[in-house]
């Protein structure tokens, strides 16, 4: 049990935590919004699903190359503003602008024109985003050298970052809502001149509506991310790099030697056994979750509501938003306390075990018969009446500000039991990134002890998130394969009982299995608080305080 008090000099001021948290909000909001908006490449811009898949995969290859390079550049930069902050400032502005430009396409363009436009803009966007994200992650690793304060910093940042996942599920709703982003008179006149009717008229109207929503919302997201993204550059403070030796000179003349040093740094990172355990555990927990991430949506729509999107309404969005809400304001603070009391490895194991319990509880949470029984119970009826009264009172206000899409219809009850597993499942990702980012900061100290200067926070951050992105790409492919294996037909109005049964089983077994393997990997993780403090003391003796 830990009773260590963090020295005042090692505590990160609340203002810096808030600025760093705003950066993490951007880190979550941009990829979340990108995933949602790319869905509309098919439905709004007429992109062939295969071409849309290429647009999701090809830029990732480019991204895998730029991340380590940016990490190396950031680690070795010399400037009056520090190693990270200049890149964060410029990268935030570029990321916001390029994200908005990425979706300024017309649905009237040819498919191939939009394909090449989006591909080239994606590469430019990833350059700006890498310039922002990689130094920001490295900055977080060096904002404090205290074992426990690192966890508190990452907990705060990830709490703020979860706000993105409270917002992103609603992008699906607002993009297609004609009251939020209405069609212009000119567009309506153009549609009228086509002389269409019935399903053809509905199809072209929906395409125009979605394309308009994507273009306008992408501008708002881009502006917001640029504004929030520069805050870490303005207010966060990293280590004093003035005493940092052996930093490489980066220029065209030293390009050859720089690449040699880059590959040596990457080699050092991959030879760091504690770090490889962190990457392995993250790969399993995160991508086990990602593999089945869409399954809950399909289960709600096709199992609970038998394929009726109208009756399903906003329940999928509420499910996702409630998960982020619980993760941010309940789970992450608990995990931080567990870590401070019993250590990061123990906190990871405890949080992952709790998440496995949550995955298992989904079997009962999504059960139609149990939900029907609950809705008929006194508690269920009271809950329905309570929620109904709330929205009955606020619906006029929501209508007046164009947010009628936010409402819930509980006239026929609701699938309330599906929310019960969330507080347990939330320990999985809530614990993962809070603890793993804190533990990676400890690993950076170990690397300096073993390999000397310069410190490689940027390189470690780049490799860690490269593993996450690689796993995410693999999980998307495997997730689609699993949908095919269970017999799920996305084009069908309804699904067979057998396919939904197999889908529900996969939704539980896959993340529970990958999380269990992650626990096994981390069981003998050796870089505990005692060892971390010994390393810190040895480094101070060697080169003084940074």
Give the key terms.
single chain; 546 residues; mainly alpha; 20 helices; globular
Topology summary:
Elements: H1 14-43, H2 49-76, H3 85-102, H4 111-142, H5 147-175, H6 185-193, H7 198-229, H8 231-235, H9 255-270, H10 273-291, H11 295-304, H12 309-312, H13 315-342, H14 344-365, H15 368-376, H16 378-400, H17 422-451, H18 457-485, H19 497-522, H20 529-543
Helix pairs in contact: 1-5, 1-7, 2-4, 2-18, 3-4, 3-7, 4-18, 5-13, 5-17, 10-17, 10-18, 10-19, 11-19, 13-14, 13-17, 14-17, 14-19, 15-16, 17-20
Describe the structure.
The chain has about 550 residues and is mostly helical. It has 20 helices and no strands. The longest helix has about 30 residues, at about 110-140. The model has no long low-confidence stretch (mean pLDDT about 90).
Looking at the structure, what is the overall shape? globular
Low-confidence stretches: none
Strand content is: under 5%
Mean pLDDT across every amino acid position: 88
User: SSE order, as H and E?
Assistant: HHHHHHHHHHHHHHHHHHHH
How many strands, which pairing sense, and closed or not: the largest β-sheet?
Answer: none
